[in-house]
# Entry
Amino acid sequence: MNKVWGHIKRSIWGRPTHRANVRFLALPKRRAFSLFGADSVSSVAYAPDEIILMLSLTGAAGLVFSPLVAIGIALTLLIVVGTYRYNVNQISEHGEYELVLHRLGPTPALAHGASSMVDYVLTVAVAISAATHYLLTIFPHLVPHQHYLAASLVIAVTWLCIRGLRFTSKASMVPTYAFLGILAFTGVVGIYQYYTGTLAMAESSTYYVIPRGGLESVVSGLGLVLLLARAFSSGAVALTGVSTINSSAQFFAAPQKRNVATVLMISGFVSSALLLLVMFLVHAIGAVVVQEPEKYLMVQGRLVGEGFRQKPLLYQVAETIFSGSLAPVLLGYATVGILLTAACTAFAGFPLLTSSIAENKYLPVQMRALHSARLHANSVLVLGALSVLLVFIFGADINALIQMYIVGVFTSMCLTQSAILRHRWQQLRITLERFKRRKLIRDVLVTSFGLVVTAVSMLVVLLTKLTQGAWVSLILILLTMGMMTLIRHHYDYVDKDLMLSQDEESLEQARALPSRVHAVVYIPRLRKPAARALAYARASRASTISAVAINVAEQSTKELLKKWDTLGVPVPLTILDSPYRDRVTPLIEYIRQKKAQSPRDIVVVYLPEYVITRWWERSIHRRTVHKLAQRLRHESGVVIAHVPWSVGQEQGIIQ
# Structure
């Protein structure tokens, strides 16, 4: 049975990796891009939908601005990528959290860590919800099971990521490059059809979008600015994968920093180009999606029903270009694949982040080590559980999740760039050499420009999304910071209480021996385990030895006394009465009384127990000894000595 259980565990957790090989993952650029770049690239699957959803609030009049919004998002992405690439040496050396901690202090680091953790959870929830949306487009009969489908995808991705980053990096290449290849081919064919005049219009181009409460009049002046700002903040999800690549630098092959910069540049350009390509095709075919279609979408002069499902814009593009073929379905499957890979990216980055935070005692120590498969799995399981919870709460509604998504990303980016800027400024103040100062001034200007762009983008997101769902992210970040602070205070309290003082009086107390040692042997029944415990207690040469039994049933107690007389050991037997059949409390009270008589003495409690060899037999035996040991752990000055007896494998009382 142990072999079978071992095979099951290896199938779940994967085979253990020797500690000498853990650090040598060394992903080449093509595999690093397929895994860590998937988060940014996959945003093209849902960012266009979010832009059109916002612009459609004003009806068809606002849709003409979709290319302008896409260009703004692409430029912002390239600026942020350029800034991160320029500062890759600073960011990749220790990771963003450590950088903020060392340059800005504990409180900004708490905000950065909390924001990044919330961002990772939302990354998984958004990616899985988007993948579910595409699957439901391909298989509409699964719509009633949307919650369970999304939760099943989270569980499947969690299981894959538990097996380690080496396995995940290999599995990510097929969906990422398949998505890029199919989408690039779709774009080339679409552009060719557009310039040859053969590009058809999307089915949704004939739908009539009802403006929200007269908002068709806001497409000029200040109203236009606010509309574009809302569309920008919704489509800015394309920036979510920038920091993941830098934080994962330790997994890149040498030269690490150059490869990180290269992958970051490729990811930024590919994501920007794909976003512009898809938005161009969406605008060309007139495809639309709206919020609450049952209220604001009319088909053939009638409002659509509640069961009406809108297809993702990327799927509509493929369906229009390759009408009547399997290409839309293939692109749908490839999109699901890269979205699941994007979720894997979060599962790769979350353990790195939690490990750094746990090293500083702001998270449980179970998340501290990365070089243990089981400890790595702790972080993966936590992320998976939180993602499943979020998916169920929001019903895998990607639009609702997007409103919360971008806040954590921009918060962590602003803090990272602020930490770099402060470091550059401090270096500039102490540098006197002319050429070094010129280089530092250039560094300060580049970093400042990136910080201003990121901060303005964050301000736009907060102003336009605060009432739509961004407030939830802010509350989650604050709650996470509070939890981290409580954990740190607990660890500080424990360390202070356990610290060995260095003054001579304290050291003398630490070296002092107890006055006497009292041995107490618990006798549940007088059998071989109890006899062995008595023998061990007598061999310890304790100052006093007493055996204690609990009177639960009169007849059993009488039989115990007879056997005790027959055994003939020179140890007194004390019977404690328990009229309510509680075997634990009377013994605890007895030990407390013994401790009260002489506080400087220690009491060693010997607990005999028999060990069952077969797994199924454990469920049919009482666990009184374990309950007693659990209670005794809270008693000061008490030592617990377990005396095991392996059933079927022992030959004598004393071996």
